Amino acid sequence: MRFEPTSIPDVKLFIPQVHGDQRGFFAETFRQDVFEAACGTYRFVQDNHSGSRRGILRGLHYQIRHTQGKLVRAVAGEIYDVAVDLRQGSPNFGRWVGMLLSAQDKYQLWIPPGFAHGFYVLSDWAEVFYKATDYYAPQWERGLRWDDPALGIAWPLPEGTAPLLSAKDENNPCLREAETFPAGWNIETPREE
């Protein structure tokens, strides 16, 4: 397994070595030592698995407290996965990175704490599996508008087609109205509850 930084260096693309023959394939999808060398010391505490049909857009989601880092992969189908930097002290604040992830390529995207995350389904059906560094805490869940012009995310939507959103995601705020992570915020110094 190897990793590559993206246009936002804290977000990393993990590329597994896939061994295949007439029987099928084998790939190592996670190694703590490789992950720590690339991303630092994080402990994963929760795994999540979702299934969605073509045209569904989930996101952009984050937790303002009990912040989750996510290691994301598509285990069926293909998605366009997006991370948005919400750390006000970051030189990349308000910037985004997007990557194609598919069951075929088996790539994974590491999205550290302090980022919003979302994905758009490109295949007829996609299943997304991700590891999280903190537990789901619905009281701290926040959202960011997928089509905020200030972000300018280049979602690969078919021309003239709007994505299918949950009712909750339809009402997410734009970046200028969203709760973000203040300058000096650090995952090791959590905010008071």
Walk me through the structure.
The structure is a single chain. This protein is mainly beta and 193 residues long. The protein has a single domain, classed as Sandwich (Jelly Rolls), CATH 2.60.120. Helix content is 6%, strand content 39%. The protein is built from 2 helices and 13 strands; from the N terminus they run ββββαβββββββββα. Strands 1-2-10-7-12-5 form a 6-stranded antiparallel β-sheet, with helices on one face. The mean pLDDT is 93.
Descriptors:
193 residues, mainly beta, Jelly Rolls, six-stranded antiparallel beta sheet, five-stranded antiparallel beta sheet, 13 strands
Short account of what is shown:
The chain is mainly β. It has helices at residues 32-39, 167-170, and strands at 2-5, 12-15, 18-21, 24-27, 46-53, 57-63, 70-76, 78-85, 96-102, 108-111, 115-121, 125-132, 141-143. 6% of the residues lie in helices and 39% in strands.
